[in-house]
Amino acid sequence: SNMPNYKLTYFPVKALAEPARFVFSYGGIPFEDDRFNRDDWPKIKPTMPFGQVPVLEVDGKKYAQSVAITRYVAKQVGLAGKNDLEALEIDSIVDSIHDLRLKIGAFHYETNEEVKAAKENIAKEQVPFYLERLDAQVKNNGGYFVGGALTWADLTFVALLDYLNFMWKSDLIEKYDNLKQLKEKVLSLPAIKSWVEKRPQSEC
């Protein structure tokens, strides 16, 4: 069967679309990288299934939710685990990575300064808790998150790092050697290296 036509729509940043872009790139799957101007968002929002992005169009049909999109692409390129149990472990790591993102985002996006300070204190306790466990997971699984081999959990983590560091305002993984090695490994994959070199530049 012919390969479907893929179009990934998002703001002109890495953030939540970057994991899917990494997986597409790794698999050598062509996709339209549709980045709209922020000023156009009010026009685009009502056309999206749940009024949010990223959205993946497959042959013209729209699908929402960044994790679901990334998982689907990972299945197409063989990065979704060797069996259901591995897939479960990958899902559990990916969900934990997004929990970490939400803890960081909770204070980053808070506008009330008092509340923001309180949320930042909470994050300062919770973030190391997550990072220690993610680091140990890589250490105990042969240098990857799951099964001693590359999966979309690894690509998700590294793809989100710029966004996480941007919100955290410093290098999240500075003290975590296994996560640092994982980052180097992923960024040195030829297909990922080439994607990172050619993608549009953005702060997060």
From TrEMBL:
Annotated GO molecular function terms are:
glutathione peroxidase activity; glutathione transferase activity
Superkingdom to which the source organism belongs: Eukaryota
Arranged from A to Z, the UniProt key words for this protein are: Transferase
Name a biological process GO annotation.
glutathione metabolic process
Q: Which reaction does it catalyse?
A: RX + glutathione = an S-substituted glutathione + a halide anion + H(+)
Keyword Transferase included in the entry's annotation: yes
Q: Which residues cross the membrane?
A: none
- Show where the GST N-terminal domain sits: 4-81
- UniProt-listed Enzyme Commission number(s): 2.5.1.18
Xref: Pfam families:
GST_C_3, GST_N
The chain positions of domain GST C-terminal read: 83-204
Per the similarity annotation, which family is this?
A: Belongs to the GST superfamily. Sigma family.
Q: How does it assemble?
A: Homodimer.
Protein name per UniProt: glutathione transferase
Q: What is the organism of origin for this protein?
A: Habropoda laboriosa
